[in-house]
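Why does residue order matter? Because the sequence determines the fold. Keep that principle in mind as you read this record.
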Amino acid sequence: MGYLVVGKYTPEDVENDMPEVIEREYYGQGMIFKDEEAYKEHPEQVCYVPELSDSIYTRQDFLNLCDGNVEMADELFDNCDWQHPESLIEDWVVNGEWEKCGRCGMLFGCQMHDSCTNCGNPVLSDEPWYVEKWFDEDLAAAMELAGVPVTYENLSKMRNGCKGIFDDKSVRNEMLVDKAYELFGREE
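Structure:
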């Protein structure tokens, strides 16, 4: 099976005063130039030009975008079918397929790894790991302890008054730090 070639790219020839020529063809979702042989066999040659742009990319550019990770660069090249590689990386990061490590800044595939492949920093989820649910019974119990009659009007006032009561998490964050000290000790 041969290499995939979509369109044609002719580099600028300064000696013969010939400009760069990009001939695009339709592939995937847009009009692009893409040359798999240039990507795999000639890392210094242009292998990809996205739709509506004269930006050119070599294999080395894909490797640089992927922090030198060959597997990720290959996946990125294979999946570029109209957009800039940087845009596709951003889509993958937003969708949780890839992650940029908060500690060292390296990209890694977080669907296959639960921590950074460079420094070991764990993937931090955007989803809460603990959620509290408050019910009317909780409010009624607090009202009874405070000596307040539990009526529909008072319960409604209590519900409205308690919304956002725990938005300041500073005390709760201090409790988490205390628990970390308890479980793991203090750094000296």
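The first strand starts at residue 5 and ends at 6.
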